[in-house]
Write a structure and sequence with these properties.
The chain is an alpha+beta fold. Helix content is 28%, strand content 36%. It is built from 4 helices and 7 strands, in the order βααβββαβαββ. The radius of gyration is 15 Å and the shape is globular.
């Protein structure tokens, strides 16, 4: 598959929101129950490091970062959000996109990336491991979605480029 990566722009919102809705529908990708408005989404994620994966000029995935803390000491720490279109999962899109996000994050001064992943989402856990993340803990029954408690696996990746 021939993938290209570029920065998100507002014209991508229709595709991004559809992919996000597909993730919500799995029941193991997020505690969100509905797609936010573009303004809420735009406010939640950092302005830098917003990547779109395209194949044949169609958006097939997105990866973004959110701020972990407003404290200056954590300015180089961000949380990863990555979603792949349902019909593109298992084709290597996620690995290439997450690798691109890691590279982009390091170019923007981020030294640690973290992720909180549903324990049931083995595909996402394996993807993050392939991209250099390690499990640092599990938050047991951290959230309840549709009357079911879920554990959250905490993962992190420390940059080898930023000392």
């Amino acid at each position: 598959m021939n993938l290209t990566f570029r920065t998100f722009n507002k014209q991508d919102w229709t595709s991004v929101s559809k992919i996000y809705a597909e993730g919500i529908a799995t029941g193991i990708a997020t505690f969100e129950t509905k797609v936010p408005s573009i303004s809420a989404w735009d406010e939640k994620f950092l302005k830098q490091c917003r990547l779109i994966a395209e194949s044949d000029k169609k958006v097939v995935g997105f990866a973004v970062l959110s701020q972990v803390s407003k404290r200056e000491v954590y300015k180089g720490v961000a949380e990863v959000t990555i979603y792949i279109a349902k019909n593109q999962r298992g084709k290597g899109v996620g690995k290439q996109l997450l690798d691109a996000l890691v590279n982009e994050s390091e170019n923007n001064g981020f030294w640690t990336l973290q992720a909180g992943i549903f324990a049931e989402n083995n595909a996402s856990i394996q993807l993050h491991k392939q991209c250099g993340f390690r499990i640092v803990g599990v938050r047991e029954k951290i959230g309840k979605l549709n009357d079911t408690w879920h554990d959250n696996v905490l993962m992190e990746r420390r940059s080898k480029k930023i000392n």
